[in-house]
Amino acid sequence: MKTLCLITLVTAFASGLVAKQPNIIMFAVDDMSDWIGPMGYSQAITPNLDRLAAAGVTFQNAHTAGIYCAPSRTALFTGRHASTTGCYNGQVYFVADPEIKPLQVAMQEAGYATFGAGKLFHHTDGQIDLRGWDEFFHRSDELKQEGWHLKDWTTESPYLPQPYPNSKYNQSEDRPTKAPWFLEWGVVPEEHAESIPDSIRTNWASNKLQQEYDKPFFLAVGLYAPHFPNYVPQEYFDLYDRDAIIPPEYLETDLEDLPAKIRKQKTGRGKIHKHLESIDAVKDAIHGYLASISYADAMLGRVLDALGKGPHAGNTILVLWSDHGYHHGQKFDWGKHTLWERTSNVPFLWAGPGIARSQSIDASVSLIDLYPTLLEVAGGTEDPNLDGQSLAKVLANPDLASDRDVLLPGMKPNEYAIMNQEWRYIHYADGEEELYDIRKDPNEWHNLANNPEYEEIKRKLAASAPQTFAKPAYNKNEYKLATDGENFEWVKK
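RE: above sequence
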């Protein structure tokens, strides 16, 4: 059956039925690192990502445009880095600058019907940009009254695993952090599997693919998975043997050559990893994450199957991205919010008419390239103010790919990483630096920044950074959310 599905998908995506404007599906996942089959991670069971990769192009060196959810998604939907918008952390871009044309508006102006659902923007109230959507699906009318908060997981959710908390980490009284959903994993009862919000959104998107439209469509669906809590049905945990899981390599002296400030921060953060080791829960935590990756993969499979069975298979492009990666103890961190490889390297897969099949590209790209690429594919009006560059020609002919320096802004002005296939240069706002030879040191264990032999390399990489960084757009504490039924706005206090 899987072989038949793969053949159907590849045939549909490679049929050559390229209309002037193809339909576009944008499938977003949250916190998914490069731990997937198409990116060479053999422990993950991702058959649907595998068949998507077989039908299209996988970028092996794709990097996020923001180091956690809010700034990453702002960069994706504005096509502009935080160094341009000033949205370094929790600032809402349509409050900071309502004149910026977001991606969905650009697609609508290009003649597309636009449909959205799920975690495309940040998940808290007042974050969804409702402009430019013909329909934005929300599973709850009540939550629309709360500024369209997603609230995927609450202690009142009927699909919550029992008992709560469920993970070995959160059941330990002496754990170093007590955030309610962090490092939480568990089994959703089978009878509630279709009540998981991600399942509801995926089913909604699959139904949209069965309908006919009088114009091309842009369908965007965002999953919360594999973001914590890693709550999925038993079948996804059963795909893995917990005891056979091989954790990443950890170097005991990893933090010793970091700048003093970041070394202090990560030494404190490292208490989480030490505690996981002390209660023998590292493999359990990875087990929950891999189960959630396989669940997200299954949701992708539903969309691919719906596309293959519906009327749009021959003229639809699908792009999948994750907002950022995730540390699982590497550099003794569990999370994102870093300028290192584990945060930055993300899945970025494309398939559809006009896109090469079964190709893997090593050249460095950024998720900031998503907006201009979709704009070119859709035949929209070129926007010279976008920070990325279109990958449309590379998708059609991967031989045209060439490596380049890509930018990853941090959470304040003048804090950033510059990355390419060979190097990662990190510059902190206080002037401290890190430098890693990625080819020789893929784990980023050896900071070369203080070695005088590498001064010229640092200088060249730093020259790729913006000459000026926008100030933070505003102090988010100065605003409050005002709701009026299903409408909301941010107003100054």
